[in-house]
Specification:
The structure is a single chain. With 281 residues, the protein is α/β, with parallel strands linked by helices. Strands 1, 2, 3, 4, 5, 6, 7 and 8 form an 8-stranded mixed sheet that branches. It is globular, with a radius of gyration of 19 Å.
């Protein structure tokens, strides 16, 4: 049996996204982005980038939300896609190099000097800050007076069957990783809405809105969904470290879980997010 896989320390987030995490994301980027597209569209509607605005996309990943914002702000606006991962930014730069009003920058939104933006937006990019209050203070400073922020983040793991059901199936075979404390940097850091509101209030934001959003996600065919959930998410590191026999057992257990969610040959599963808005004073 493989040994338990330790959780990724909060301080290693940048290293993780430039190494193992970034590599996995790039390898799976097409299928993951297809799955997340309805949520990305919902974010752009929420953020409502307008003609002529300056927009900062935090944790921009492959650049799809950045490109959508660039289309909305037009030739007189500008969009900067910011990410800590050089590996993932390489995909964004390759995809959107010809876009005149769109650029990409490598850096940590929690600490780098940022200013002059009308809008800060993020699709699942703000849950990884080791010191979230300080990070959001920096994002507030990036905004002009009265500027706005809009982001989408996951609610609790148990509220997200698209990830929790396959994770439970995998851990019937694999050893569970060491648990992280509630609110630790990671996909579900802002599951607690009271904590989320408190962080934004401490960071000096006003007009805070947090609305629950539920969406059925299309994970693709059964084989595509199996490949994605075993290579990304909470069980991915343990799966990669497992023996061939254990991996086969994980795939068998996960297949059973996903088969129950098949609709006309595709895996459809519920997701649960927070849609968050706030304004700088």
């Amino acid at each position: 049996m493989t040994k338990p896989v330790p959780a990724t320390p909060a301080t290693d987030q940048a290293a993780y996204w430039n190494e193992e995490g970034g590599r996995r994301w790039v390898e799976n980027i097409e299928r993951v982005e297809r799955m997340l597209q309805p949520l990305a569209d919902r974010l752009i509607t929420l953020a409502a980038p307008a003609n002529g605005e300056a927009v900062l996309d935090v944790g921009c990943g492959g650049g799809l939300t950045s490109a959508a914002a660039a289309g909305a702000v037009g030739a007189t606006g500008r969009v900067v896609g910011l990410d800590v991962s050089a590996v993932i930014l390489g995909v964004a730069r390759t995809r959107f190099k010809p876009t005149a009003n769109l650029s990409f920058a490598l850096g940590d939104a929690a600490s780098m000097s940022l200013s002059g933006y009308d809008l800060v937006l993020s699709r699942f990019g703000v849950m990884f800050f080791p010191e979230p209050v300080a990070a959001f203070v920096n994002l507030r400073r990036a905004l002009k007076s009265g500027g706005r922020m809009a982001f989408i983040c996951w609610r609790a793991l148990d509220d997200n069957p698209w990830m929790s059901e396959s994770t439970r199936a995998a851990f019937t075979v694999l050893p569970r990783p060491e648990p992280q404390p509630p609110g630790a940097p990671g996909p579900f850091a802002f599951a607690d809405v009271s904590r989320l509101r408190g962080i934004l209030q401490q960071a000096g934001f006003g007009a805070i809105g947090v609305v629950p959003h539920d969406e059925i996600l299309d994970l693709g065919t059964l084989d595509n969904a199996l490949e994605q959930v075993t290579r990304m998410g909470p069980a991915a590191a343990a799966f990669a470290a497992a023996s061939a026999t254990e991996q086969a057992a994980v795939i068998a257990a996960t297949r059973v879980a996903l088969e129950a969610r098949l609709v006309e040959g595709r895996v459809h599963m519920p997701s649960a997010t927070w849609l968050v808005t706030a304004r700088a004073g």
